[in-house]
Amino acid sequence: MNHKILFVDRKPFESVSIERVFDQISKDIPADQFDIESQKMPYGNSPLDILLNLLFFRPKLADIYHITGQIHYMALRLPADKTVLTIHDLVFLHRRTGVRRYVLKKLFLDLPVKRLKFITAISQATKDEIVKYTHCDPGKIRVIENPLVNGLAPEPIKPFDQKRPIILQIGTSANKNVPNLIRALDGVNCRLRIIGRVSANIKEALATSDVQFENVFDLGTKDMIEEYRNADIIAFCSTYEGFGLPIIEAQAMKKPVITSYRSPMKDVAGAGAFLADPNDVIAIRNGLIKIINEPKYREELVLNGTRNILRFSSKSLAAEYLEIYESVLGN
To answer: Is it true that the peptide bond before 156 is cis, omega within 30 degrees of 0?
Structure first.
């Protein structure tokens, strides 16, 4: 008889990268050993929603519970010795101050890490942050990186438009650093295509520049593949990430990438991206111009990117989760 794994997920949200990652992982867990089911939160992410989720969520029976991210507080409701928690990032600590930050830190970090035995982080940078803020034993946290999701097909490959390239920016939250990208592109003959709802400061940066742009959001997987395919350069100069999935997705789509020289972005990108200081507009601009004007350099980035993504095989990373699940059953 198979063991049952229950993926415990957040309520559907505009950004679905976490869901795509664990949909892929589930496909590579042996079906003759495990049955996998997903159960989503009944409520969203507001303070009231968090309270309602804690009060009214009724988990289905399972041998292993896996909180796949962003709802860490559910560790308080699930069996401590049967629950795995994956932590993607601690961005909530950087966006909040005062009492609200204190409460979120307790609910999303301190209490879950203290209570659970099985915790994974999607990058060494995330693990280092967890240890820094909780002072837990580093051996308690295992780094398992995100896999490359199947189905990214680069062909037919669009010829690079050196005269007026399309720069694709994925994500619009504050850490995505879009205003600095806009400033870097001011005066560059290109089209900026922004994926995600734009905030007031992004609108202000666009209004004070001559950058030609397009904005779309709420795209499905097929639409995102077309966005990658139609782009000439992928820009991902974030100031903070837990991992940076668009970096390896762009590499799989055989596109040149510019990203941040900070961890984990530089670690994820390997040699397959131009690395720039995300706070230095000139550095971002110089990187983009180098990619646009130097065909051999572009080809080198793309080639290194296709080599780099071999590290992120879904099967090998699913095998690492399988080891965690077997430890839970043994426990």
So the answer is: yes
